[in-house]
Amino acid sequence: AALLGDCARKGSVVSRANSIGSTSASSVPNTDDEDSDYHQEPYKESYKDQRRRAHTQAEQKRRDAIKKGYDDLQAIVPTCQQQDFSIGSQKLSKAIVLQKTIDYIQFLHKEKKKQEEEVSILRKEVMALKIMKVNYEQIVKAHQDNPNEGKDQISDQMKFNVFQGVMDSLFQSFNASISVTSFQELSACVFSWIEEHCKPQTLRDIVIGVLHQLKSQLY
C-alpha cells in the first residue's frame, strides 16, 4: 500500500510537470516562423527633415548666385582686372570688388556728362554754321538777282566802311559776352554768342543800321 501510494504521488507530480511544460511551451513565440514572415520597411524622411533639406538647398543656391554675381562684376569691371600691387596675386575680396565697381560707375557718369557737354557744344557749332550758310546763300542770291545794282556808284572805301560798321557792332557784343576764364568756357561763350547775335535777323538789323548811318553821312 505504501509503494502504491508513492507511485501515485510520483505520477501526479509528473502529470503536473508535463501540463506546466506544455503550457509554457505554448506561451513561447515561434521565432522561426516570425523571422520568416518579417519584412523591414524603408526609412521614411520626416517633414522636418524635408524642410531642413529644402532650406539647405535654397541657401546653397543663394550663395552660388551671389558668388556668380561677384565673379561677373570682376569680369566686367576693367579696374577689377587690373593688378593691384597692394593686394598682389590674392583674389579680390567682395568689398574690394564692390568698391571698384562703384568707382567705375562714378567714372562712367562723369564721362557721360562730359560727352553730353561736348555734344551740346557741337550742336551749337552746327547751328552757327547753318546760320552762316543761310546768310551767305542770301547774299549770293541777292547778287544774282541784281548783279549790276550799285555797281561803280560807290567807292571801295564805302564798302569797307559798311564792313567795318558791322564788325564793330559785332565786336562790341562779342567783347561783352565772352569769358576767358578757361578755354572750355571761351568755346561755350563763343557759340552762345553766335546763336544770339549772329542770327539772320540780328545781322540784317545791324547792316541796316550801318547803311542808314553811312547814308546820312553821304547825304
Automatic annotation (TrEMBL):
- What ranges does the record list as Polar residues composition bias? 15-30
In this chain the BHLH domain maps to 50-108
What are the entry keywords? Answer: Activator, Coiled coil, Cytoplasm, DNA-binding, Nucleus, Phosphoprotein, Repressor, Transcription, Transcription regulation
Q: Kindly list the biological process annotations in GO that this record carries.
A: positive regulation of transcription by RNA polymerase II
Renumbered residue ranges of the record's region Disordered: 11-64
Q: Which domain of life is it from?
A: Eukaryota
Which segments show compositional bias classed as Basic and acidic residues? Answer: 37-49
Q: Where in the cell is it found?
A: Cytoplasm; Nucleus
Coiled-coil residues are 105-132
GO CC annotations?
Answer: cytoplasm; nucleoplasm
Gene Ontology terms, MF aspect = DNA-binding transcription factor activity, RNA polymerase II-specific; protein dimerization activity; RNA polymerase II cis-regulatory region sequence-specific DNA binding; RNA polymerase II-specific DNA-binding transcription factor binding
Self-association state and partner proteins as the record states: Efficient DNA binding requires dimerization with another bHLH protein. Binds DNA as a heterodimer with MAD1, MAD4, MNT, WBSCR14 and MLXIP. Can also bind DNA as a homodimer.
What the protein does? Transcription regulator. Forms a sequence-specific DNA-binding protein complex with MAD1, MAD4, MNT, WBSCR14 and MLXIP which recognizes the core sequence 5'-CACGTG-3'. The TCFL4-MAD1, TCFL4-MAD4, TCFL4-WBSCR14 complexes are transcriptional repressors. Plays a role in transcriptional activation of glycolytic target genes. Involved in glucose-responsive gene regulation.
What protein does this entry describe? Max-like protein X
Q: What is the lineage of its organism?
A: Eukaryota, Metazoa, Chordata, Craniata, Vertebrata
